[in-house]
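To: structure subgroup
Subject: Chain for Friday's discussion

All,

I'm putting the inputs and outputs inline so they're searchable in the archive.
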Amino acid sequence: MRLIGLGVVLALGLALAPLAAEAQEPGKVYRVGRLSVSVAEPASSEAFRRGLRELGWVVDQNVVVEQHNAGGDLKRLAAVAAELARMNVDVIVAAGSDAVEAAFRATKSIPIVMAVGSDPERRGWIKSLARPGGNVTGLIAFLPEMGSKRVELVKDLLPRARRVGVMTDSSPNMQSEFEHIEAAGRSLGLEIQYVRVMSSEDLDAAFTLLRKAPPDALYVQASSRVLDGLRSRIAAFGIASRLPVIGTIPYHAESGFLLSYGTSIVGWHHRSAYFVDKILKGAKPGDLPVEQPTKFDLVINLKTAKALGLTIPQTLLLRADQVIHP
């Protein structure tokens, strides 16, 4: 009897396995549109595709990934998002809060996955992190409260610092971060000096301003609008001006900033494939909890420190997750 019972269990298990696995519809080719302001970073695009492959999808066969961007022109983003909506793709993966906002305005029926987002409740995209409730879910890459942590890092690095420059393009998703930056500045006796760069053409004027009234350090906000694409020029300016530049994404330090503290954007693009997989297999985006970062990497570039003539405190080096040596 025990053997017969086991056979029945195995037979039932095999019969139910496809249902448990939420197998995709046989023969169907799904289309995923990836939306961004600028051309997607190759590493981020590959991380997303790798995530799909690891979940059993055959990219370019049973799922096609279509890249759409506004060529760095924020004014074109709404039109690009509307075009995606008209194509009736199965899922839109939006990289950056501007892209999420454009997709959200373009459609309330196509599922939207935030690959990189911020403040989704305040922006009205979701009802709550645990139960988004609409057609948006995904990942929050930037937590506003990290602004205060980075200002504290400046003080750890430069105890005598009195003024910190904050380079921003005034993205709406950064407004909450301003509050934390300013609160930390008041607590630590630091003056906050904002330098706005709304387009690549503004960068030289920003450099002129920084030369005339140099801060002790420059904090560059993360942004998919303008600043991320200018990071190499900003890093070169920092070294030439002997100005320590603090970044928000690990690859900022790899690009030549003195240090960076934040979560891996490439990692979030990889993780966004999990949400796409769930949705293509039948899950509703409103039922998938939004995820927040739990790990933040401190990356210190000693090559840049040497060029600046700075000695990094040993206490800070011991806290680093990665040290880039000359």
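Points worth raising on Friday:
Residues 155 and 201 are 31 Å apart (CA to CA).
The chain is about 40% helix and 20% strand.

D.
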